Amino acid sequence: MGSLEAATVLVAPAPVVTTPPAQHKVFELKASYAPAAKSVPASKPKPAKKKLAGGCGGYVLEDVPHLTDYLPELKSYPNPLQDHPAYSVVKQYFVNPDDTVSKKIVVHKSSARGTHFRRAGPRQRVYFQPGEVRAAIVTCGGLCPGLNTVIRELVCGLHDMYGVTSVVGIEGGYRGFYARNTVDLTPRSVNDIHKRGGTVLGTSRGGQDTAKIVDSVHDRGINQVYVIGGDGTQKGAASIADEVQRRGLKCAVVGVPKTIDNDIAVIDKSFGFDTAVEEAQRAINAAHVEAESAENGVGVVKLMGRNSGFIAMYATLASRDVDCCLIPESPFFMEGKGGLLEFVEKRLRDNGHMVIVVAEGAGQDLIAKSMHFADTHDASGNKLLLDVGLWLSHKIKEHFKRKPGFPITLKYIDPTYMIRAVPSNASDNVYCTLLAHSALHGAMAGYTGFTVAPVNGRHAYIPFYRITEKQNKVVITDRMWARVLCSTNQPCFLSHEDVERAGQEEEEPHLPNIEGENSLVLKSPPL
Ligand SMILES: Nc1ncnc2c1ncn2[C@@H]1O[C@H](COP(=O)(O)OP(=O)(O)OP(=O)(O)O)[C@@H](O)[C@H]1O
Ligand SMILES: O=P(O)(O)OC[C@H]1O[C@](O)(CO)[C@@H](O)[C@@H]1O
Ligand SMILES: [Mg+2]
After folding, report:
1. Which of these is catalytic: 209, 261, 263, 428?
2. SS3 string of 226-261?
3. In this UniProt entry, which residues are annotated as the site Important for substrate specificity (predicted)?
4. Which of 13, 63, 209, 294 is 20 to 30 A distant from 278 in Cα terms?
């Protein structure tokens, strides 16, 4: 257990005035903060105000909070990395404070410069001394390849780059903050955990009680919290960050986005996704071998993807053995002209076998129509899904039973948990390492209330609200989905209205208008 004083450094007058962390003009941050409070009765923390900076050409920096926003007297120190033998030789190792990463990478002559995020990386000045840091790491939500790599690299990165020796793991997800003891994490104890699937800390759904979590953070003297999880977890982290600010604690709250479904908005890709797609190939290969070896063989493979069909889409494109890919974003129908059953029949007549890949969230409306079921949710409030693979297999079998002289052999493969329980592959391991490093550089530099991830290939600090306001979905009016349809030669199943609706959902939200600052974007002619 750490000392209470360590977590309550806070608003004591500091001898050195800090260098401002950002050069940009900041708007809208008007909150005044009370000095540090200890246990405060449970109350819903107000979300932090958006921190926006504007410039000409429709430039908007959607910035992340900094500890000095509410602890203006906080002391800063030279970054110890400048004396590190490995890093001191790197030219321009520290990130220029004005560097930003553009959300939009494809632009036109008259495009506004649009939304930017603060570039991730080490800063010249840090707001924690090595001996002062007590970091905590927690993993929440479903499993995902790479969780252990992120944990390892946070522990080793903090130790090797910043000399931090106090890192604890919170066991069993958010509720572990107040229901379990912590475990000490050292470079030695995490040395080879990246070779294992799962999370050495354990995980859970539900149990997110912000007030109790922040009480625990305060009581244990924790001043950096690293939260690894999906969209639900990032929402939880946002409310922890808000409560930490409200209490005036010197504690950075940092999110590392995790989800096998790749459904986190704004970011290029979530870690573990590549590994999952690779692992899915084994199931698709098996389905293909089985289907090819039987008379009118049909292989059905169900892959994860609650609301977003990225795993199914990429696994299909990678395999080239798939005849039909079904995802939640693209409605389909079974019976009649242009329906799935007609297509299965045609493909079997033409090729003698076929493989169908279905994302678990696809066709849920069809199943619900055809059977009674209780609409249930998991502990985090996520809707529990019906088994579309089983349902589809049953429907196909029933259809061909009614066709004497057309026997089929159908094999249903459900590798759902196998694709997420494996250790991360080489490229995900490197990705997880960079994510962990970007996360801890941000916390050491005093940033808080952010998720770290690559945006157009560059790591950026993204305010929590940007990650949580909507989910990333396959855009069925985009070229990538067209590539899938082209590779499988499946029908698109969509009505004109479906396509219209999909196009409207994809419209970009308007840029924030900062009076007198980014007016160009408002005056620029529509494209
Ligand atoms: N809106 C929310 N506000 C605060 N906490 C939340 C919210 N939604 C979910 N959480 C908490 O976040 C944790 C993880 O959420 P969830 O089970 O939805 O997984 P996730 O992080 O979305 O990951 P994945 O979907 O990839 O499994 C849970 O402890 C849950 O209670
Ligand atoms: O059965 P569990 O562990 O709740 O997780 C299942 C869900 O988790 C996910 O893998 C997301 O993490 C979804 O694809 C899936 O629906
Ligand atoms: Mg989720």
Report:
1. 261
2. EEEECHHHHHHHHHHHHHHHHCCCCCEEEEEEECCC
3. 232
4. 294
